[in-house]
Specification:
- With about 450 residues, this protein is of the alpha+beta class.
- Helices cover about 35% and strands about 35% of the residues.
- The strands form 3 sheets. A 6-stranded mixed beta sheet has the order 2-1-6-5-4-3. Strands 8-7-11-10-9 form a 5-stranded antiparallel beta sheet, with helices on both faces. It has a 5-stranded mixed beta sheet with strand order 13-14-12-15-16, sandwiched between helices.
- A hairpin with a 2-residue loop joins strand 4 and strand 5 (about 100-115).
- Helix 6 runs antiparallel to helix 7 (about 210-220), helix 11 (about 330-340) packs across helix 12 (about 340-355) and helix 12 packs antiparallel against helix 13 (about 380-395).
- The longest helix has 19 residues, at about 5-20.
Length: about 450
């Protein structure tokens, strides 16, 4: 065997012993005591044989060595005729990773020295030629770890809104600590390397969020929940929330957690904190526009039904909730006498009266034309409902479509108290019947409660 073949054999034995057979003792026998490795390990440089061994032992747990094969291309050997040689090649590793065959392309160089007639490697350098994370990820040895994580972060980062990033965090969920924190010039929650992860989550939630949002945030980003998500195949967990900044300003944020396992199988995550305030408020405006009646800014008919059906399920305390049906009296005459513009103004003023008379938890909707309804979520005792209805009637009487000293407007109201598990349709029909009794039998300009249909209120 000539020297060129011996040099090649030593080089290939190093590659194949490291990546396929994993016979570390035979591989380390190929090194000189003062071997130097460049691009090896987390520190990037190895200065002796003793430091090389643990790197070669630290192989990827999810790479199947029985399904790993090596191909060489562009191999070049420089033998200087004495006891020194250089060799380089493109090494293509085909291996099974997480059940899939993948390829990695590595530029591998080595310098060799002949000692007592035997070629030994005294310098190695490995350079990833791939920029595809899947190819980098297929490389069996741990000195690719830094490249893997760098490309993983870059790939994930490219899929989110770069210009809106407030901060990036790296978390080790095995230890429950922060590993990295990269802020921008925008406000973020600062952390130090080694800070306890869940303590910061609790602190952030208590300082930045209100009520139910606090609990949802903590539950979503707890370590237990994130582990469960990852085990079920979900690698990205995202939550949008309205935060309270130190200056009192409210800002919509998005926390996006990208989960992955490192070389040793430890679950880690990159958390991207994003400013989505402008985008979110635009979405909310569009949603609101779709839900509201354009003239009055109360809910439109379709949305009113949906909101009330949901409220019926949420508000279950006894002696609460009632359904109001309202109809302006002789509205056609207002349009015919004063014109449609004045008629529209009466409708708008009526909607504003309902907004002022009812609370934020109550649902106000325009069912069409001059007809409104309200789902009242408060105390449903007779006296309370009567007072509320009279308040609306009195305010509407002060709407004067003509001159201030001209006739006012009036409204008829039908009311039904919720006494059981009535559906929207059942409440609507009973309130509508009470409204009919008020208008047809008891005279307009007043209210009638369904349970007291014989009363003349």
């Amino acid at each position: 065997m000539d020297e060129l073949e011996k040099i090649k054999k030593c080089f290939c034995a190093f590659i194949e012993g490291s990546l396929v057979s994993r016979d570390i003792d035979k591989v380390t026998d190929l090194f000189t005591e003062d071997i130097m490795g460049i691009g090896m390990g987390a520190q990037g440089v190895v200065r002796c044989k003793e430091d090389m061994r643990p790197i070669l032992l630290n192989t990827r747990s999810d790479v199947d060595s029985t399904q790993t094969s090596i191909q060489y291309s562009n191999m070049q050997i420089r033998y200087y005729g004495d006891d020194y040689a250089n060799i380089c090649a493109t090494v293509t590793i085909t291996t099974e990773t997480r059940g899939k065959l993948q390829k990695s392309h590595i530029g591998q160089c080595a310098s060799l020295r002949r000692i007592s007639g035997v070629w030994k490697i005294n310098m190695v350098q490995a350079t990833p030629l791939s920029v595809d994370i899947q190819e980098i990820d297929a490389y069996p040895l741990s000195f690719a770890e830094d490249e893997i994580e760098k490309y993983r972060m870059q790939e994930q980062f490219s899929n989110i809104m770069r210009r809106n990033v407030i901060a990036t965090y790296k978390i080790d969920f095995e230890l429950g600590i922060y590993e990295e924190y990269i802020p921008t010039d925008k406000y973020s929650v600062p952390v130090e390397k080694g800070d306890d992860y869940e303590s910061k989550v609790f602190k952030s939630a208590s300082e930045m969020l209100d009520g139910d949002a606090q609990l949802l945030f903590v539950q979503t980003f707890s370590i237990g929940n994130l582990i469960g998500n990852y085990q079920s195949g979900q690698t990205d967990v995202t939550l949008d929330y309205e935060s309270i900044q130190p200056d009192g300003k409210r800002l919509w944020l998005r926390s996006n957690m990208h989960l992955f396992t490192d070389i040793k199988g430890h679950l880690k995550g990159y958390l991207y904190l994003l400013d989505i305030d402008r985008q979110k408020r635009q979405e909310l405006r569009l949603t609101q526009q779709a839900e509201l009646d354009l003239m009055t800014s109360v809910y439109n008919k379709e949305t009113t039904r949906k909101k009330i059906e949901l409220a019926i399920e949420l508000y279950s305390m006894p002696m609460t909730c009632a359904f109001f049906m309202l109809d302006l009296d002789h509205f056609k005459q207002i349009n015919d006498t004063y014109g449609h513009a004045k008629g529209d103004d009466v409708i708008i003023q009526t909607a504003n009266i309902l907004k002022s008379c009812f609370g934020n938890d109550d649902i106000i909707g325009r069912m069409g034309g001059d007809e409104f309804c309200v789902f009242y979520t408060g105390d449903s005792h007779y006296e309370v409902l009567a007072k509320k209805a009279e308040q609306v009637c009195e305010a509407v009487r002060n709407i004067h479509p003509g001159s201030e000293d001209g006739p006012g407007t009036s409204v008829s109201i039908g009311i039904v108290r919720r006494v059981g598990n009535e559906s929207f349709d059942e409440l609507y029909q009973k309130a509508d019947k009470a409204l009919y009794v008020r208008k047809a039998q008891q005279g307009r300009n007043g209210y009638t409660i369904y349970e007291s249909i014989s009363s003349d209120k």
